[in-house]
Structure prediction request, 713 residues.
Amino acid sequence: MKNSFFSAKLISLNRISVLIFTMQLAKPINDFFLTKNNDEKKKLKLIRHTSTNNLNMYELEMDEPFIFGERYDLCLDSYPSIAIDVSDAPTFPEFDDMFNYNGDDLGATYTRKETSFALWAPIAFKVDLKIENEDGTFSFYNMKRGEKGVHRICLKGDYLNRKYHYIVNNYNVVKETNDPYGKGVSLNSTYSAVVDTEKIKRMPKISPKDYLSSYVEHIIYELHIRDFTAQKSTNIVNRGKFLGLTEEKRTTLYGKPAGLDYLKFIGVTTVQLLPVLDFAKVDDLNPDATYNWGYDPISMFAIEGSYSLNPSNPMERLFELRKVVDTFHKNNLYVTFDIVFNHVFDYMTFAFEQVVPNYFFRRRKDGFISSASGCGNDFASEKYMARKAIIDSLKYLMETFDVDGYRFDLMGLIDLHTMNKAYDECKKIKENCIFYGEGWDMGIELSSDLKSCITNSFKLPHIAFFNDAYRDIIKGPTFEGSQLYTKGYVGGNLSYTDGAIYALLATSVDYVFPKRFLNASQSLNYVECHDNHTIYDKLTFSNQEDDEQTILSRIKFASSIVTMSFGIPFYHMGQEIGLTKFGLGNTYNVVKVNNMNWKLVEERFDMVLFFKALNTLRKKLIYLKEIDIEKIAPLIEFERLPNGVLILSSEKIKIVDKSKKFYCIFNPNNFIITHEFDDYYKLYFYNGGFIDKDDTHAKNLILPPLSLSIIYR
Prediction:
C-alpha cells in the first residue's frame, strides 16, 4: 500500500504490538496472522486497537510463548510480511531466568588442532562466524544455537592470530561485530583475533618474595605505562611500552635509578597500572599522535595494543603484559590493574550491545541510557550476564597474567553484589588478592543501598575505598573553583587538627566524626592520584604565599602523614618529587603533561631519598598492620599542642625491641616549634630520615617546620 508502513514488536513473551501508518483511507484490520519457520499461518487474537490521525496501534496475543531462535513473520492483507522486532526482549522480567548461562567457554578457545567459538546471543535468529583464511580472504560459517541462547561452532585446523567477526541477525537487524569475550584483537581493534591464552597461563608463575597477607601491608604506587618511561632523559630503550617497565639497570642521564630500578629503590610494595585493557582514541601504530589515560574502554578482555612493540601480532601484547607482571614479581613488587567496568567508550558500537541490544546498559526512567559516570553509557552490572562478564574478565586477567588485584574506576556505579561475588571468585585463585576502588555515590538509576560506595562499606567487608575525607582533611578540598584555594592540614589550616587525628586513625574510629569503615584495611589513604590536580599544583593555589621550597616541604609532610596512618598508603607517580601538571586538573588526553619527569628526580633526589625512608619506616612499624578498630583505639593516645602540633604516643607499642614508649610528633607550621618532654628520648626519625647514631637523645626537642619526628625511650 502506497505511503504506508507498519512495524511489529514483541512486547512480552506472548504479545506483539503493531503500528500501522498510512496516508490513505483504510478500515481497521481485524485479521493478523503469524508464521513460524514458514509453516502455516496462525491467527493472532486482537486484544486492543487505538487510532490517532493516520496511525493505528494494535496489541495482539499469541497462542504460545515466543521461542527465540525460531523465525516468526507477521502477515496481513495489503502489506508484505515482516519479521518481529525482538529488541525489547532483554528488558522482559523473565529474560535473565531464561538465559542465565553459567558456562566458562564464551569467546574463542584455541588449540593447534581446532578452535571453538561460543557467543551468548539469546535473541538472535541466526549467527555466522566470519573468519580469516591463510591467504587473507574470509570464510563464513553458520553457528548452531544451543542452551541458554549460546551459539557455537568448532573449526578444525590452526587458527592462531586469525581475525574474526560475528554476524548477528536479531530478526532482520544484522550487525557485524567483534567478539564481546575476545581475548585478542587486530590492529586498532578492527577485528577480534584468535589467541592461545592457555599458553600464557602455562608460563611459570613467580611470586613476590614478601607475602603480603593484609591490605595494609601494601604501599601502592600508581603509574601510567606510557607516562612512566616516555621521557627521553633515561636510557630506557622501550619508552612508553609494556617492555619499558621490564628493563633493569636503567638510569637517568646522571646515574639515578630509573624505570623498574626506581620502583625498587623507593621501596613501594605494589604498582598500580592505569588501564591495560583495550581502549579507544590511541592509534596502535602511531601512539604519539594522540594521548589517553585509557578510561575509554572498548573491550573487557583484550589488551591495549599501543603499549606493544608489535601490535600487529595479537599474541605479542599478551606475552608482553605477562612479562611485566612476572618481572615485577621477580623484583618483589605486587601488581594491580586499573579496571574500568562502570562505562564504555560508546555503547552503540560496544560488542555486547551489538550482539544483545538493550541488555547490558542501565537506562533512566525516560528510556535513555544512563550516564551517571559523566563519561556516558553506564554498564548494568546488576544484570545476570553483565555481572558474569565482569567476573569472567577479572578471573581471566588473574589466571592469565597473574595480577594481584584490582583498582575499580567509579566503583560506586557497580552493584555491591557483583563486587562481593567478584572478590570471592578471585580469592579462590589468589588468596591474598586486593580489591579497592572509587566509592563515590553517583547517579540514581541504581538504588543507593545497592551501590559499591563508601556509605555501603559495611556491606563490602573485603573492598577498600579511596578515602576522600582523608584526602580533603590532609590536602584540602580538591575540585575546581574556590575549593582549590582552601587549605588542608598540611597547608596550615589548623582547624583540621582534629580531622588529622581522625585521618591518622583511617577514619575508622569514632573520633569527632563517625567511623566510615568496618576496619582500617578499607581505608585507602591518599592526597594525590591521577585525577584532579597534583598536590604540588593544589598547594600553588591554596598557599600562594609560599615559596617553592616550602611547597615541597609541605608535600614531604603530607607523605609523612600518609605513612603514619592506619590503613593503606597510596601514592601517585611523581607525587614524591612534587610533579606538576602546570595547574591543570583533568589531563586525561593532554600529551606529555602527565609524564614522569626524570630530570626532576635528579634535581630533587633528596625528596626521593626521604620518600624511600618513609617507605622503610612504614615497613618497620608493625603496629600499623593492625586493622581491628577495637584494638586500634586503645593503642594510641593523642595530645594536641598549640599551633596545631599533634603528638601521637603509646606505651603499648614497640617501634624497636628496646623501646618502652614512643612519640610521633607532627608540626604543620612553617616555623620551628620547641617542646620539652619528661625525660631524654632517643631520636629515631627526624626531618630528613632515620637517625642512626645511638647517642642522639633529646629532652627539649626542636621540631623543624612541616616535619615528622619520632622519638622513643
